[in-house]
Protein: Methylenetetrahydrofolate reductase
Organism: Actinophytocola oryzae
Amino acid sequence: TKVVDRIPGDRPVFSVEFMPPRDDADELRLWNSIRSLEGLDPAFVSVTYGAGGSGRDRTIRTTGRVVTETTLVSMAHLTAVDHSVAELRNVIGWYASLGIRNVLALRGDPPGDPNGEWVRHPEGLNYAEELVRLVRSLGDFCVGVSAFPYGHPRSADLDTDTRYLVSKLRAGADFAIAQLFFEAEDFLRLRDRVAAAGCETVLLPGVMPLTTPRILSKTVELSGEEVPAALVARMDRFTGDPKAFREEGMNVTTELCERLLAEGVPSLHFYTFNRAKATKEIVVDRLGLVPGRKAQPVA
Ligand code: FAD
């Protein structure tokens, strides 16, 4: 099953992202999360691609297990980091042989320092766009790419960023998933820029439930944007009280999701860090996105 076929458009759905487990305890946590989400019928689950070696094997293994051992639709991430084209073909072949039909094609960051200089593998690829073409050329895959609401950190300006994004989408991407952002408008402006360029590819917002102050720092790190003053003011008074911080953070996330859904976003993509509890709370109890599961009124 392809990811695009899991996003019906007439009712909002959600998807979840996991990371390859680092150790046995993480593996247990991951599989508990996967099992607990299975009954909620997410549109798809994706597994990120590690920066190197064993992490990559664990991505392939985990994504394969999702296909063979669960009822979930699986999407594997793939990056061009330190890979020759021959190796990339090999990994894509592995994915295909495991029955994986969905690939998120990424350039990736330089290993070690993500802000360091990007060095292409001598026999590899330079941009995600080339990987989109490669995956497409190797089979009947549904291909996703990444998008950046504030522009990719390496982009000179938003216009250039939009131009390259649209070019990547037109190279054969079926959808894009956005990096973390703080306010719904930030995502909606990205969507407007892409639409204004005449591109109709579906864009999915990436959401991470705001359960701890660390999630805020992570969002700053990944988005390249500072926390908006209004959000700082809203959350600051709870920094010494983890329970109250979580409650208010979940309210913030719920409001963000509600605004995105009101703007016609067909699906929400949740970054989980291999923990499902907060995502379940948002999609079931707060947004009521899962048919047959009763949404609890939010206090
Ligand atoms: P690209 O689209 O190739 O863009 C990279 C830069 O080059 C941008 O600045 C772009 O504007 C510019 N550019 C693009 N085309 C051209 C061109 N033709 N000429 C000149 N400049 C150009 N990383 C991982 O390691 N593993 C993962 O699993 C992973 N999953 C992710 C999932 C999502 C949803 C997101 C948003 C990010 C993910 N990342 C992952 C991080 C991602 O790999 C990095 O953010 C990386 O820096 C950008 O990858 P990209 O595919 O967007 O690159």
Observations:
- The two ends are 38 Å apart (CA to CA).
- Strands lie at 13-18, 45-47, 74-79, 102-106, 142-147, 175-178, 202-204, 206-207, 267-271.
- The CA atoms of residues 214 and 222 lie 12 Å apart.
